[in-house]
Amino acid sequence: MKRLFLFFLANLIFIGAGCSPSITPGQAEPVSAEPVTATQVPVTLEPVTQPISTDTPAPMPAFDASTYRDESDNFEFDYPSGWSLDPSSQIGPRGAQALLTSPGTTVETLAEGGSRLAITTYLWDPKHDLEAYIAQHKLAWSASGFTILSEEQWTLAGDRRAAAYIITTPEEPSFFMLTTIGDDYLVLSGNGDLNLLSEIAKTLRPIQ
Length: 208
Description:
By secondary structure, the protein is α+β, with helices and mostly antiparallel strands. It has a single domain (4-21, 47-206), classed as Protein Transport Mog1p, Chain A. It contains 3 helices and 12 strands; from the N terminus they run H-E-E-E-E-E-E-E-H-E-E-E-E-H-E. The protein has helices at 4-11, 130-143, 194-202, and strands spanning 29-32, 54-55, 65-70, 75-80, 84-92, 95-101, 116-122, 148-156, 160-167, 174-181, 184-191, 205-206. The chain has an 8-stranded mixed sheet with strand order 2-8-9-10-11-7-6-5, sandwiched between helices. A 4-stranded antiparallel sheet has the order 1-3-4-12. Strand 5 (84-92) and strand 6 (95-101) form a beta hairpin. It starts with a helix and ends with a strand.
């Protein structure tokens, strides 16, 4: 039960899909970053069936920030100061995952107004084929009865391509961002304040 939420978010993409990912776990630790001032806007969900935008994020996050860093896979991103980090750990022979939670939120329980974000890396064949990886996720979501509520194509720092989704789940709408990290595929997924999770994901960048 301890990893119920993590297993659900990170592995629902493979339910009924018959795919065979593998992974080399990375290591992650938070480091300090300069804070900025934030305002948050409630998310509005509208059904779409095609990508709706291409979005290049601003260089600074819209919240007081700390930084999550994975030196093994050479990426980092900002998240709100005051959140708790459950460090990266293996979730099976083929997966590694860390969890960020807002104050009062746990693996099992989402606090009122709270958010949580899972950081999961995979090795999956074919490598360096984000379109195939996205297609596999869509197939798995469809087979599991989930509906894509919104879909966006992003260009992140370093010209990294990413796809962001809000989908239905048995709990509530959830956020997913899919991208590549070297030979790995990276998935940021969570629920709560979906706009905030989107802003966090847009700060993903290579470690300089």
